[in-house]
Amino acid sequence: MNLQIEMEHHRGVLIVRLSGELDHHTSDMVRMQMDEAIQRRQCEHIVLSLKNLQFMDSSGLGVILGRYKLIKQKGGKMAVCDVNPPVHRLLDMSGLFKIMLVYENEGNALTELEVVS
């Protein structure tokens, strides 16, 4: 299975929707596209929607952690939402939920980041 990445900018927030598998085959592409979007446009925060992410390995964790560090250095926040059970378990075991905000859906994440009017 491949990976599809959809990105949208919403009031200073980069919303990234991942579908498929985030692994050693696809992690470099995701990293490069997210870094380019962060640098090309002004974004204060990142919302990572994992609703349709079926699989993730340690390479995917590295991509997420790296983007978290990048946005944190800029004074922003990174939130994860719509995490399905297998990916949720991996993120929980990795300890990412201890440092990153987690929400049920994009709407809640955007509201909490105070970007919804």
From TrEMBL:
Name listed for the protein in its UniProt record: Anti-sigma F factor antagonist
Entries under Gene3D superfamilies matching the protein: STAS domain
GO BP term, pick one: sporulation resulting in formation of a cellular spore
CDD domains found in the cross-reference section: STAS_anti-anti-sigma_factors (cd07043)
PANTHER family named in the record: ANTI-SIGMA FACTOR ANTAGONIST TM_1081-RELATED (PTHR33495:SF2), ANTI-SIGMA FACTOR ANTAGONIST TM_1081-RELATED-RELATED (PTHR33495)
Keyword Ribonucleoprotein: no
InterPro entries found in the cross-reference section: Anti-sigma_ant, Anti-sigma_F_ant, STAS_dom, STAS_dom_sf
Family: Belongs to the anti-sigma-factor antagonist family.
Species annotation: Paenibacillus terrae
A molecular function (GO) term: anti-sigma factor antagonist activity
